[in-house]
From TrEMBL:
Species of provenance: Rhynchospora pubera
Positions of transmembrane segments: 69-91, 112-133, 182-204
Protein name: DUF599 domain-containing protein
One Pfam family it belongs to: DUF599
InterPro entries (alphabetical): DUF599
Keywords of this entry: Membrane, Signal, Transmembrane, Transmembrane helix
Record's signal peptide: 1-24
Length: 230
């Protein structure tokens, strides 16, 4: 009743802080730098499309394969967990509830339902990211003319498609990571809290960009952003 909600609140608070930082100071976060680099990459690729059309398709194919792999992993974990619910509960039943948490049937059901929900939502995000990556792969090489103002397939639209694909992929990754403490919740609440603390520290070091030991400046230009993310 204390450790699990406290760890969950810590994780939610961190991501709310990260979301606010991405909106206000995007160049101090990896997500903001990646968005800037992606836009610069699209503009560079489409500038000389005859020579770089295959580079764009191959690059998106790599991202597409990653999302497909994670989507398959999420659905396999969901189905495998659903198949092993009863046997897992019967193994844990004799353990001491003081350390390993409650073994009441309703509590066990809440644990498994939360875990399955997380993996299914991760699968949904990965599936949607695959859809946007597929659309981007088709539209990035569409011929464009400055005189054709009625053409809806603009560079801005293509950049939005790529941003949605990587954004949903990032959300799917975070949901997948959130399944780790929920898996440990089957063992007990102490490991859940410790996992949330470790995961928050790791994600902070991954998400926040630093230059020579200092937080990145918001005034960095596009070229510096691309260099930093590479």
């Amino acid at each position: 009743m204390i450790l699990v909600p406290l760890g969950f609140l810590m994780c939610v608070s961190y991501h709310l802080w990260l979301w606010q930082k991405i909106r206000t100071q995007p160049h101090q976060t990896y997500v903001g730098l990646k968005s800037t680099a992606q836009r610069a990459w699209v503009l560079t690729t489409t500038k000389d499309n005859n020579k770089k059309d295959m580079i764009a398709v191959q690059s998106v194919r790599n991202a597409l394969m990653g999302s497909t792999l994670m989507a398959s992993t999420s659905i396999v974990l969901s189905t495998g967990l659903a198949a092993l619910l009863s046997s897992t509960y019967s193994i844990k039943k004799p353990l001491n509830s003081t350390i390993y948490g409650s073994h009441d049937e309703h509590v066990a059901a809440i644990k498994y339902v939360c875990l399955l929900t997380i993996f299914l939502f991760a699968f949904l995000c990965y599936s949607l990211s695959i859809r946007f990556f597929g659309q981007f792969g088709f539209l990035v090489n569409v011929p464009r003319s400055n005189e054709d103002e009625n053409n809806p397939v603009t560079l801005e639209y293509v950049c939005v498609l790529l941003g949605k694909g990587f954004g949903l992929n990032t959300v799917g990754n975070r949901l997948f990571f959130a399944g780790i403490p929920l898996l440990l919740w089957i063992v007990g609440p102490i490991l859940v809290f410790l996992c949330y603390v470790c995961m928050t520290v790791i994600l902070y070091n991954v998400d926040v960009v630093t230059y020579n030991g200092k937080t990145g400046s918001r005034e960095l230009g596009d070229q510096n952003c691309v260099t930093a993310i590479v």
